[in-house]
Automatic annotation (TrEMBL):
Key words, A-Z: Dioxygenase, Oxidoreductase
InterPro entries reported in the protein's UniProt record: Glyas_Bleomycin-R_OHBP_Dase (IPR029068), VOC_core (IPR037523)
Taxonomic source organism: Streptomyces malaysiensis
MF-aspect GO terms: dioxygenase activity
Domain VOC: 1-113
Protein name per Swiss-Prot or TrEMBL: Glyoxalase/bleomycin resistance protein/dioxygenase
Lineage: Bacteria, Bacillati, Actinomycetota, Actinomycetes, Kitasatosporales
Keyword Nucleotide-binding in record: no
Statement: the UniProt record of this protein carries the keyword GTP-binding: no
């Protein structure tokens, strides 16, 4: 699979103040979107997330988000090495997403820019 980049997940109480800090640190402008009841801001290599604790407790289990060329390729490679697909693929704001558990137990989200047919 082609890994195009990674984003770190940061759960915050106050999204607006976190955005200001991370925009200053990264020099990038935030792009906001909703993921269900969770407000998300992508700022440089960070996904800042704020929302109900019941949702954040689940999102904290995902180590990072990995951008890939194609989620289908990621599924094939993850399965080949003994990984487990936990959720997805599902539509995402810019393409598709899935959550996978690696053989060592680490959990990652994979995203691509290919819309679901």
């Amino acid at each position: 699979m082609d890994i195009l980049g990674t984003s770190l997940r940061v759960c915050v109480d106050d999204l607006d103040s976190a955005i200001a800090a991370y925009e200053r640190l990264t020099g990038a402008e935030a792009v906001r979107f909703q993921r269900g009841p969770v407000a998300v801001a992508a700022v440089g290599p960070f996904f800042l997330m704020s929302g109900p604790e019941s949702e954040l407790s689940i999102l904290r289990k995902i180590t990072a988000t990995i951008a890939v060329k194609d989620v289908d390729e990621a599924i094939a490679d993850l399965t080949a090495v003994g990984g487990q697909i936990v959720a997805g693929p599902l539509p995402a704001p810019v393409g598709r997403t899935l959550v996978a558990r690696h053989p060592d137990g680490s959990i990652f989200e994979y995203v691509d820019r290919n819309p679901m047919a």
